[in-house]
Amino acid sequence: MSWDVFAALMAFAFVGSATPGPNTLMLLASGVNFGVARTIPHIIGIAFGFGSLLLATGFGLGQILVASPQLHFAMKIASGMYLLWLAWKIGTARAMGSRETEAQPLTVLQAAGFQWVNPKAWAVGVGAMAAYTDPANYTATSLLVVAAFMLVLAPCAFLWCGMGTSLRGYLAEPTRLKWFNITMGVILALSLWPMLR
Hints:
The protein is mostly helical. The chain has one domain (3-192). Helix content is 80%, strand content 0%. The protein starts with a helix and ends with a helix.
């Protein structure tokens, strides 16, 4: 892979990681409700889950889904149900999470598992593997795609979480927090729309 292609890949990875989507909305909400330190497992889970999704897509899973419309449809249903459940959990949160409250941030495994039902993760992952791998050197270029995303994903995740954390003071007032969480839940649910078309 030439340097100009790798630079384009890095730009694609940045746009795919930094633009709003289910992960960024959940990181923003987690930053507000739990702060940066308690959201770190969520960020690690996103990196681990998306990295494994990229590898699986690059090494054949994408072709299996294209060849099996029933499996693809089942994944869409599972994705939608899980996304709606997460939207409900965010939208109904009424207090900033502390260690004593019932609300908890996503764990590493929950965040990693979410990548496998996240419609944006699939779209970005399949797009990256299709556009930036070289059939003549497929394994190496697939690994470079994964490396590019791993380089930009964590800083972008911390940025969104940090934006949420910066709102904690303003949203400490219960009514503001309630409406923020409702808004984040609704937006997360609406992010399903592209998948349903």
